[in-house]
Structure formats: C-alpha cells, structure tokens
Amino acid sequence: MSRCGSPLVARYDLFAAAKTFTRANLAAREASLWRYSELLPVRDPANRVSLGEQFTPLVPMRVLGDELGMDRLSLKDEGLLPTGSFKARGAAVGVSRARELGVRAFAMPTNGNAGGAWAAYGTRAGIEAYIVMPKSAPAINKVECVMAGAHVWLVDGLISDAGKIVARAVAEYGFYDASTLKEPYRIEGKKTLGFELVEQFAWSVPDVILYPIGGGVGLIGIYKAIRELQAMGLLEERLPRFVAVQAEGCAPIVRAFDAHQNESTFWNDAHTVAFGINVPKALGDFLVLEALYESGGAAIAVSDASIIEMQRRIGESEGLFICPEGAATIAAAYELRRRDWIAPHDRVLAINTGSGLKYPEVTIPELELLQPDATLRIDSGK
Amino acid sequence: MSRCGSPLVARYDLFAAAKTFTRANLAAREASLWRYSELLPVRDPANRVSLGEQFTPLVPMRVLGDELGMDRLSLKDEGLLPTGSFKARGAAVGVSRARELGVRAFAMPTNGNAGGAWAAYGTRAGIEAYIVMPKSAPAINKVECVMAGAHVWLVDGLISDAGKIVARAVAEYGFYDASTLKEPYRIEGKKTLGFELVEQFAWSVPDVILYPIGGGVGLIGIYKAIRELQAMGLLEERLPRFVAVQAEGCAPIVRAFDAHQNESTFWNDAHTVAFGINVPKALGDFLVLEALYESGGAAIAVSDASIIEMQRRIGESEGLFICPEGAATIAAAYELRRRDWIAPHDRVLAINTGSGLKYPEVTIPELELLQPDATLRIDSGK
Lengths: 382, 382
What we know:
Largest sheet of chain A: 6 strands, mixed
Largest interface: A-B, 83 and 83 residues
Number of strands of chain A: 11
CATH topology of the domain at 58-84 and 185-358 in chain A: Rossmann fold
CATH class of the domain at 58-84 and 185-358 in chain A: Alpha Beta
Oligomer: homodimer
Order of helices and strands of chain A: HHEHEHEHEHEHEHEHEHHEHHEE
Shape of chain A: globular
CATH architecture of the domain at 58-84 and 185-358 in chain A: 3-Layer(aba) Sandwich
Distance between the termini of chain A: 57 Å
Strand order of the largest sheet of chain A: 1-2-10-7-8-9
C-alpha cells in the first residue's frame, strides 16, 4: 500500500511483453495461470510457488439457462483451483512475489477462503504465515489454515478487529502485510482469471460478466486483464458489461452505484449467508465502481432466500454444487433477465468463486432410513 | 457384469486408434480427459457429460521428500477434479456411456465419494440417480448427493446392505446398475489417470506408483492404460512397480498378496479413518493382485495413527490438505523407503484420491481466542 493508504497497482512494459505474449505462443504453453508470465510480477520462474493452478472450466448451463430465459449462460468454476476457491490465484502469485522479495513471514486477517489459500501457498514457499480470523469464521477455514501449517488465532470480534491485530503485529515484528490490497500482487494473480476467460471465449469477451463482490479484487483483476490485452492489440475494444453482485444484507457497492458515487460508504450490521461477500467497505471499491461505469454495467443485491434457492436449483438442474456467492450471481442474472437488462441471446458468464464443499453446513431435508431388508419405494411422480 | 458375476472389461481396436492417438495429436488437444477419446467407450461427442474434467496436477514434494529420504517424490492431486475426488473420472465416462445407451435412471450403493460424483454427472445428463448409502457415511457426501439432485436413502447397515437394496430395486424397476464393476465403463474413465500421468512423465512411467486400495478400480485403470499404450507402441515395455496401500484395519489385498494368492477373502470387522478404503472384499481384487505380481510390486498396510500423522505432516511441509487415503500412500512410501524397497533416487508417485475439504471432521488443536485490543505473542521457538 502507498503511504496515503490507497492501493498500488502494478504496471508492465506491454510493448516488450507483446513480443512473446501472443495468441499462438500462449496456446502452446501449459494450461495453467503461469502461462501468462510476461504479465505477472514474478521475474524468476524458480520463485513460482505452485500447488497446480490448472485452467478452471467454462461450464455451459443449458438446462438452467433455458429455464431462466438465457440461451448462452455459462459458469466459470473457480472451485476447482487448489484450496477450493479463486483465492488460490491471488495467493499463488502474491506468495511467489513475496518469496522473490525475500519475505520470511507474513501476517493477514481473513474471513475464510483467503486465509486457507495464503496458508497453503505460504507453507509451500517456506514462509511463515500468521493468520487472525473472527471466531465466527467457518470451521472448515480454521481447519484448512491449521492443516496447511499456518499459525492461527481467533478474535472475539469482526474482520476489522482482526485487521487491527495484524497491523500491530506487522509494526512490532516486521511481518510482510498480506492484507487485501495492502500488497499489489494478489490482484495480478486474480487477473489471470480474465486472461483465461478471454482465451476460452476464443479471444473475445462475453456480453455480461457477473461477479460476487466482497473485496472486489476478482472483478478488478478481470477488468485489468481485458484492458492490458486491448492495449497490446490482442482483443477488440468492446468491454463486457460488468455486474457487481451483492447480498441485500451487505450491499455498499450497490448503494454507491445507485447514487452514482465513485466510492462506497461503510455498511452497518452487515450479514448474509454468503460469508465471502460480507464485506461492509472494500478498499478497492472505487476500482470496482470504475469498471461498472466504464462498461455500462450494473450493481444488484439479491436476498439470502434467493441465493439458497438458486444454489439448490443449480444442483438439481446442472449437477453443480457451488458456493452461495456463486449462486448469487445466477440469481442476479435471473433478475436482470426479468428486467430485460440481459437479453435472451446475450453471452452471460457467471463466476463461481468457490466449491460448495467449503460450505458443509448447508441444510438438506431429512433422509429416509431403511432397514437392510427394505425395498425402495419410488414415488410415481418423480 | 457378466452372468457369471465377474467384471466385464472393454477392449478396443488399438491398431485403428493408433492412427490418430499420437503424441503430437494429443498434445494439441484440450488438457482434459476427453482428449483420449479413441480409447474411451463414448462414440458420439454429443453424449459427453462434463463438469470440466481438466488435467490434475503433478505436485513435486521436495521438502517432505527430503525429510523422508526420497528425492523424486511427487503427488498427483485428484482432489481438484469436479466433486473433489478421482471418482469424477469414472462417473464422467460411465454416465456418458449410460446416456449413449439410452439409460433413463440408474441405482447404486455408495460409501461416499462415488455417490457424490455419480449424482452430479447423472443430473447433468438428465438421468435420474437413485442412491443408497449407510447411515454412517460422511455428512458431506449426503449433502453433495442431495444438492446434486439425486434421490437418496440411508440404510441402517453396511455398504453391502445398501448393495442388496439396490439389487432389488434394479430387478423391480429396471434401473441401470451403476455399482462398481457391474458396468464396465467407469474403469475406462479411471484409465485416463494413467494416460495423464504418462504424458506428465514425458511419455515414460515413474519407478513406483502407490495407490490407496478400496475397490481398486483406480489402480486397475492405470495398469490398463499403460498396457494399452505399450500395445500401441507409444510407451516402453517397463512397468512401474505398483504398490497397493491399505489400512491395518482393512487389508484384504495385503493379506492375499503376502500369501501369494490370486484373490482376497472377506475382511471381518473392517474399520479405518480412511473411509474410502474401508472395503472388506473388492470385486476386482484379482485384477489388482495381477498388477502387483506382474509389475514386481508390493502391498502394504499402514496404521490409522500413521495416516493421521502423515496427513498433518504433508500440510505442514508442502501446504497440501489431502484426504486420509492419499496420506496413507505417503506413509506407505516412507515405510517402504525404510525397508529399502524404495531407493533414494526412485521416481515415486503417490496418488491423492480426494480433497481434504471432503473430511471436515479432522481434529485440530484448540485455537487461542484474542480480544480485539490484543497483540500477537509469537513463540520465539517457532
């Protein structure tokens, strides 16, 4: 972070990079985020810290798309990255750069998935990870941080309290501060999501991209990726219309967008089942809003009830068990389709930020218990 | 399954396939299991049922390898497949072939991960899935089956009781029987694990492959893949030494191997923390044993305590949160290294069959709870 408190953003010599960063060269490289090395901040390949960041799939959603009136709906499933969420992109690149800079230990506050990812990559890099999370954070995230060898504390408070404890530890022990947007490199990792989707759309962009917004770094990363590709002459100038998706119980970006403001204000009493987007004020809010305004995009809040219903519906129609944050993007797409903001034939891309497996507490109906000599009774209506 | 009760195995015209199944052609195709289509039983690409089966990474384990005295130890992380386990390979191909055959509904018993995978792919194919699992199956597997839209029952008994209920339902309703090795296609899907690793080892095989053995279909699949590649002249004749890894509380293959037998006998009172290998008698046991004998391999049982300790150690040294079955293979490698059955410079490949995220009940130490105004106390010894 700069001294004034605003995020730093990495810049590259795009003219030099364009000599080797070509469509043909990329296609011949391994299908992992490291294929974009010219536009990543890790100079020496020996410093790459990897748990196997393969491409994530673009999954067509034909059945659900038909039901919702969108015939080109697809989902990019980031839950198949190491540690089960898109946070792996930021951690892989952020930790690699930290290793290149000689970092021996970092500290960070987390609500969940970011901690799991940074713990795993930190350990793999031989860097000590000091992580503070609210005691209300999901059990699975506590488990994965500990299992990945991090030093973990809970705080009887919010993520902002965890952040203050981390800030004191950074000052006292000289730890590298790995908090969101206090280092400029995790956004460079998230950027690879944008490069990947452009390649998967055959060097084009979809008409609409929906992203669940907590800190917003994922959307900022995609936007930055597209702008860099355009500057290099690798992509037409057209932008996708970005949609920031939030929960009704925590929608600071939506409120700012509706009021045509350039930054958001703190959202009091934030709450939603989609824990990953329960962020009352994002440090990069102004960058998210810029991407929305520039692209003719939108910001929309959906209810927890619609998120839960859509999560189940996605499973029943497409076989995908995705996280509530991902389900929120489809619920938002449906609402925007009903308003005719999305047209029936638009190419609509929803980003699923994590695996449903990271939310084991989801409620399901009670299952019938059979005795060993029983026979199945299949309801005729099914 | 044939009428005599033994598994059927698919055969191909390898001479015809070899015309297009070449190293160069494969390298130019998408990095997914569908690149091996000439040797898969799905004839029409329109019948492919996919949730995005990208290549799984080969992860070097240099830190842990050094500690354990193996300088070329690596792990293939199957936990990054859709539904979080290697079962996705068998389900993707098995369900696709079922769709091609016109199947409208299938039934199967499961202890866990197979059910999650078949539920997901079944729903995606528009095929009804009827699944019966022991009431003691992990909660996460019940959740994922239901969330993927399957019809799920519990049985107050074992997997064998679930199997009998399924058999009655198959007879009564005419369902397709999707039980392990009662259809010959899931092994064809698992075979792609073998093709992938051969490509990742630059068209060679490692010296040793360790696999956690429950039903054993994964190991059988790798063995079949290597034999097919050899028959096509794409791979040297040398086999890797296969190691069947089981738990001390359920080790029928190990007992049969030690007695030089060609099939196993039922293991009474089977129990282990590694739920996925808690199989007292595998239908394909004779195929597993054949692969062990043919390759000069081994069978070894490890204790639950060593599995749990190794699971933690893998996390702390490599940052990987893998499943207990996967951890068992590394514990076995360590033991075989101590016996000098594995040499220090052998290329050793361990297969991790699933994500640690599917085992959220793992025990971790109690975490210290801080007040918001606290400062971190870092132990000087850490």
